[in-house]
Amino acid sequence: MKLTIEVWRQDNTATAGRFETYTVTGAYEEMSLLELIDYLNDQLVSEGHEPIAYESDCREGICGTCGITVNDQPHGPVPNTPSCRQHLRSFKDGDKLRLEPFRSEAFPVVRDLVVDRTALDDVIRAGGFVSVDAGTAADADSMQIGHGRAEQALDFSACIGCGACIAACPNGSANLYAGSALQSLSLLPQGQAERSSRARNLLAEADTHFGPCSVYGECAVTCPAGIPLSAIAAVNRERARSAFRKGKDD
User: Fold this and answer.
1) Rounded distance, CA 55 to CA 77, Å?
2) For residues 201 and 73, what is the distance between their CA atoms, to the nearest angstrom?
3) Longest dimension (CA), the chain
4) What is the spatial distance between Cα 94 and Cα 8, in angstroms, rounded to a whole number?
5) From start to end of the chain, where are the E strands?
6) For residue range 97-138, what is the model confidence (pLDDT) as tens digits?
7) DSSP of 194-220, one letter per residue?
8) CA distance 75 to 82
9) Cβ neighbours of residue 69 under 8 Å, at least 6 residues apart?
10) Which residues of 227-250 are buried (b: 16+ CB within 10 A; e: fewer)?
11) Are 24 and 39 in contact (CB under 8 A)?
12) How does strand 96-100 pair with strand 2-9?
């Protein structure tokens, strides 16, 4: 395959970025997008140029670090699939690919295709956890949880923290991300003790970094973990509940 690759190049957060265009020959359908960038980087290095900076770790669709925007679509053309699992079989010989970082005010560009996702970490640090004193955790089978409820909680906890939902949202909302964390913990008995304070702290942090939700729905289409759109309902529900129950289950 012969492809024209238009890539966002930016030296650091403080400098202006620009698109640079490259031609790749010899690519093949089985290549993933990351393998395509590796292939292009080999070419750039051999020509004495700086390679394209991008982020990846597992390449198995579970770490959430590899996200890039491909032809204006976060992660790429295949729905609910991370960038590392997007393949060139989705494109044709002679196509033009426009690669750029996730676009969101909350994700400043570090270099080229790498963005800073610290805002997502701040949200989880604010309330995406259960506090249990070391050595006091009960046996795993001491709290009986129905199979259906357990599976539902696991479904909502599947988020890999890539940030594609924010990049896909016209408002830059993190409600799918925040809602999945709140919903997964509110379904389990271990999450009840701090439920109100969790919602207040987590949502206050989310409101600081991200925009409001208008239920466009692009977030659920893009999400590699398949988090359902119903997760966003947990945001307003848990926000209202925490206001009425302030001080009762903090």
Assistant:
1) 19
2) 31
3) 65
4) 20
5) 2-9, 18-25, 69-70, 73-74, 96-100, 109-111, 114-115
6) 999 999 999 999 999 999 999 999 999 999 998 887 777 766
7) THHHHHHHHHHHHHHHSB------HHH
8) 5
9) 75, 99, 100, 101, 102, 103, 167
10) bbbebbebbeebbebbeeeeeeee
11) yes
12) parallel
Tokens of 95: 């196509």
Structure tokens at 236: 């307003």
d(CA 87, CA 96): 14
Please state, in angstroms and rounded to a whole number, the distance separating the CA atoms of residues 6 and 95: 11
Any idea which residue has 């295949």 for tokens? 78
Residue showing tokens 């509940």? 241
pLDDT digits (tens, 9 = 90+) for 190-248: 888 899 999 999 999 999 999 999 999 999 999 999 999 999 999 999 999 999 877 66
Q: Contact, 103 vs 174, CB < 8 A?
A: no
Note whether 172 and 243 are within 8 A (CB).
Answer: no
Secondary structure of residue 7 in the 3-state scheme: strand
pTM of the model: 0.91
Closest CA to 169 of 178, 160, 158: 178
Q: Which residues contact 243 (CB under 8 A, 6 or more apart)?
A: none
| Burial (Cβ within 10 Å: 0-12, 13-18, ≥19) of residue 188 | middle
How many C-beta atoms surround the C-beta of residue 52 within 10 A? 21
